[in-house]
Amino acid sequence: MKHFYMMRHGETVFNVRRKIQGWCDSALTEKGIQQAKAAYDLIKDIPFDHYYSSTSERCCDTLEYATRFSVPYVRLKGLKERNFGLFEGESEDLNTHFEDF
After folding, report:
1. 50 included as an active-site residue
2. Exactly one of 81, 88, 90, 92 is catalytic; which is it?
3. Burial per residue of 25-45, b for 16 or more beta-carbon CB atoms within 10 angstroms, e otherwise
4. For residues 30 and 100, which has the higher predicted lDDT (pLDDT)?
5. Residue range 58-91, pLDDT digits in tens
6. 81 assigned to active site
7. Does the pTM exceed 0.85?
């Protein structure tokens, strides 16, 4: 039996500023780094065959901190988040207009 694990990136500057973030990238905050480091204790005893990450730096950084920079991994463009076009970097308040659809 195989298991598939997914982990979201740690908190970013755009998360704190409530900005829409897809293809645009923002750095992990200190809290985001601490979240990623804390994930180590949750995954350290799980035997993984492979590690993959989105090409976004926030995701790669999260994986590296969560594994204490100790594992090789592959960056896959196909794991990249959606491109929100003109909405990239705009306020998350714009999302409230689309919640009912």
Report:
1. no
2. 81
3. bbebbeebbebbeebeeeeee
4. 30
5. 999 999 999 999 999 999 999 999 999 999 999 9
6. yes
7. yes
